Task: structure prediction
Amino acid sequence: MSYQYDFIIIGSGLGGLLCGALMAKHGMKILILEKNHQYGGSLQSYNRKGFYFGTGLHYLGDLDEGQPLHKIFKYFGLFDDINYQRLDDTGFDVFNIGGNEYKFPIGWNSFREKMVEYFPDEEPAIDGYIKEIQKVVELQELNLLNANDNNEININEYHTINTWEFIRSLTSNKKLQQVLSALNFVYGGVKSKSPLYVHALINNHYISGAYRVIGRTSQISEKLVSQIVDKGGEVITNSAVVSIDTSDDLVKSVKTIKGDVFTAKNFISNVHPSTTMSLIPDGGIKKSFRNRMNRTENTLSAFAINLVLKDNCFKYRNYNYNYYKGDDVWYASNYNSDTWPEHYFMYCNVPQNGSEYAKCIGLLTHMEYAEVAKWKDIDSKKRGAGYKNFKEEKAQKLIELASKQFPELKESIDSYYVSTPLTYLDYLGSPKGSMYGTLRDHKNPLGSYIHPRTKLGNLFFTGQNLNLHGILGVSLSAIITCGEFFGKDNILKEINLDDN
Result:
């Protein structure tokens, strides 16, 4: 049988674009189909009044020379004409927990010194924490990229250890317990479920070296698309896949909303597994597999405000500010719509003109999908006054909360733009607007693990739902998925050779 393409990739998030770029490097004919008018998934940027805002990539780690993401970015040419700002060494993230501030410095030695400074009587617990985290990272990074011949991830003890219980086992100091847990917002942590390996990899990712993209985050997706196109591939936007045609346990073709039908030898889905299942007709894939994908629990969604500020009013902060109204940083576990908001994450876009003042900042916090579900079936441009008023009311509450720590903020605002869980659902396609896709559960490590292979012989998954979300996790997932065809060892050799 003849095929139009070697690979068709559904969705143009980072995982899909990395797969496409890597396969194009290996001479494959690639087609990427994207439902939105802009490719890039969480890398998308949008323009308001001449200022660009990102949608999902607020900062990234492991970008120092020789570190994993640096090697991957170098291999894919993502340092060519794209610049990154290293965040403050003395505190890339500042946490206000119940009125007390704590800084997370870059580098594990500096992190240790700062924690001991805050908690001088807890040195053994701090050392025990760091030792165990580094042990997890060493094992888990090896595990993620060196699975067995069947690409099965070995479930080890760190998949079955609960993060919160692990931290509590080290110390009875309740403040230290919360500080060591403080980065859980960036993985949608749930106190009763989040496994230690997720906590360890995410914390190590940022503590090892935290950066911001200077300018548009969409520069990354644009660079990858240009590589794909230069190698003869195609990326088509406004082309949502509406059905996946199967026969004899293989995908034969995909059909888009425009009515176009495309064939390929292999297919990769960069969209959520349950969304992928919705594209396959009944009987097209094993029912047990479909049910498992549809049962996956997802992380909580978000409410975000992107603010354009007046000139020379609000100082640029080269760090992120995390505020918790109470003394428990596991906000997703204690979410209460009646007392919302009780948390925010604030970040500043790097000023393009070198100014000491910020021009654009973002405020981000959790929100449950149920609060906006009544507008889900209405076209995004026609949701009316009720939805508009809801967004305005919530935005004012969040701005009011942030202004308590930053009194100058409210008077500095020129304009702002709001995203709700429906925005994440509309543009990213994640079920109920989930921020980080599937939720990992230490009590059910196999059940919450998504394999790159499906029960259709030529359909594969990639992206944040596989192993780990975030830019490093998604990059690793692309290597794992492409490793099904070219061998992970071969890909890693190429990446490491390119880094020398």
Observations:
- The CA atoms of residues 450 and 466 lie 5 Å apart.
- The chain has 16 helices and 18 strands.
- The mean pLDDT is 93.
- The chain has two domains: 5-46+216-296+450-499, 88-208+298-433.
